[in-house]
Structures are given as C-alpha cells and as structure tokens.
Amino acid sequence: MLHSEKYIEESIIKVFHKVHKNLGTGLPKKVYEIWICYELSKLKIKFRRQVNIPFTYNYVAFEEGQKVDILVEKSIICELNKLRPTWEDKLLNYMELTNKNSGYLINFNAPVLQYIKRTIL
Fold this sequence. Notes:
This protein is 39% helix and 34% strand. The protein is an alpha+beta fold.
C-alpha cells in the first residue's frame, strides 16, 4: 500500500503522541522504539529499526558506523533522544549521510512530548 508523504508524516506525529500518552516518561529508549514500530505496523506503514549508516573515510567504504533508530518508508529518520543541539546536529548528519530529506528528533523523557522536525531542501 502506498501512502502519501503527508499521511505518513501526520501518522508519525500521531504515533509519537499516542506512545507518549500511553507509556509516559522514564522508560528505556528501546521500549519507545518498539511501541512506535508496533503502532506504525498497525497503520501498515513500513519501517526498519536500528539501520546502519554506511560512510566513506579516506576512500574506504564502511558499512557500519552509526545507526538510525527508526527509518520510516525508506525516507524519514526518527531519532529518539533528548532535544539538545548535539542531537540535532546528529540528526542532520544522519540525514545528509543517508540522503534523506526529512527527520524527527523525539524526546519521550519530558512531561509533554517534545519533537523537532528537520527538512533538508
């Protein structure tokens, strides 16, 4: 099933809020990751967890380095971390390394769900 980009992005935000509402704060990152993926699967939205980001250094290709928490529909990166400038930089780096145009940085360890959407044009 093909979903529009707008549907996917709206669904991702709804899933973030649903998981935050149901689980609250203070759980390990992996728990939120599992539940986000479960909710995405119920919506028939494709995703992959813990996706390796290949990179090249000194003309040598490495298949393993950093990992994206969740890659949705092969195009949207979701990183579950605190909202700090260093994590924002990390998200942007991941987006550049993977040639993805959209990404979210989500903080579940706050009383009110916090997330940042980044788009590279």
